[in-house]
From TrEMBL:
Record family assignment: Belongs to the phosphosulfolactate synthase family.
Pfam families in alphabetical order: ComA
Domain of life: Eukaryota
Name the UniProt record assigns to this protein: 4079_t:CDS:1
PANTHER family: PROTEIN HEAT-STRESS-ASSOCIATED 32, PTHR48413
InterPro entries named among the record's database cross-references: Aldolase_TIM, ComA_synth, ComA_synth_sf
Length: 316
């Protein structure tokens, strides 16, 4: 090997890292700038919360409507990592992933201080428990999630009816196993996963807002739950703009507390409305494709007719 070839090889080895995917190897840039503040920090809002933050959190949807591998996620986090607090696997999509690839995605998220959530797949697991040799399935599911490195176990009941006492037991079981419980609450029965069934507009599918608020108070008081997810169906999702249940949102924020909830808002019109009406520090769940648009809005960098030049913060 010539001195020139050896020098080039050494420089190459220092500049790149090799990441292994199954039996193949791909050359990739080393992870860096995990906590960057943008290329123009003097133009960004100094009041923007940094990680780990209690308010102004953004959870992004991972794979579901589109696949997501480590290279795709790496592009997102390498550029937008400081603005992403959590990555959520929707619709049980993580069950389709090969074990090594799933672990690599979760580890990559952790490299950028991003927590990883299971999404509300536990509803499907609850339906399967006790069938045949499936006893103890909930314990097995939670322990496996912990083993893979998931941080957050979302506990939803949009499609099923479950007593609050059982809901509490699930929350406490997740906590005992070292997972962060994240109960999901809503006002529409049969909701989840972008359901478009016209029958869901019927009054029989609607639930009393007081029921949601009572459960929220119970879970926050009796468990270690740090944050509640608010399901968007029946509030803003698949609801005509003029029929949005803004009254429900107002009651949740007033009676439960803005810092204790995260609203599903995976639509630009919806998350724009939230920031406009409740400020840049509202906790929101959006699609991964919307993270740049949402952060520009939170920072007051850009916006629509309703928000351009109007989103401001103050910090001493």
């Amino acid at each position: 090997m010539s001195l020139l070839t050896k020098s080039v090889k050494n420089r190459f080895a220092q500049s790149y890292s090799t990441i292994k995917f199954s039996s193949r190897k791909f050359v990739n840039y080393p992870i860096q700038n995990k906590t960057h503040s943008g290329s123009f920090p003097f133009l960004l809002n100094p009041a923007r919360e940094s990680k780990s933050r209690k308010t102004g959190q953004t959870e992004i949807r991972g794979p579901y409507y589109s696949p997501m591998g480590k290279r795709y996620l790496s592009d997102i986090l390498e550029t937008m990592g400081p603005y992403v607090d959590s990555l959520k696997f929707a619709g049980g999509s993580f069950t389709l992933y090969p074990e090594n690839e799933l672990r690599e995605i979760i580890e990559l998220a952790h490299d950028y201080d991003v927590k990883v959530s299971t999404g509300g797949f536990i509803e499907r697991v609850l339906l399967a428990q006790g069938i045949g040799d499936q006893k103890g399935l909930i314990d097995k599911y939670m322990k496996k999630c912990k083993d893979f490195g998931f941080d957050t176990l979302e506990i939803s009941a949009g499609f099923i009816s479950i007593p609050s006492s059982d809901f509490l037991r699930l929350i406490n079981k997740a906590s005992t196993l070292g997972l962060i419980p994240k109960p999901e609450l809503g006002i529409q029965f049969g909701s989840g996963g972008g359901v478009l069934d016209p029958s869901l507009t019927a009054a029989t599918t609607k639930q009393d807002i007081q029921h949601l608020i009572s459960r929220a108070h119970l879970f926050l008081k009796e468990t270690s739950t740090p944050l509640l997810m608010i399901e968007s169906e029946g509030i803003t999702e698949n609801v005509p703009r003029e029929q949005w249940r803004t009254d429900v949102i107002a009651r949740i924020i007033q009676e439960v507390g803005k810092e204790n909830v995260m609203f599903e808002a995976a639509d630009p019109e919806v998350f724009t409305w939230f920031v406009k009406n409740y400020g840049a520090d509202v906790n929101l769940f959006v699609d991964h494709s919307q993270i740049v648009q949402l952060e520009c809005l939170r920072q007051g960098i850009w916006g629509t007719f309703e928000t351009w030049g109007r989103v401001v913060r103050f910090a001493e």
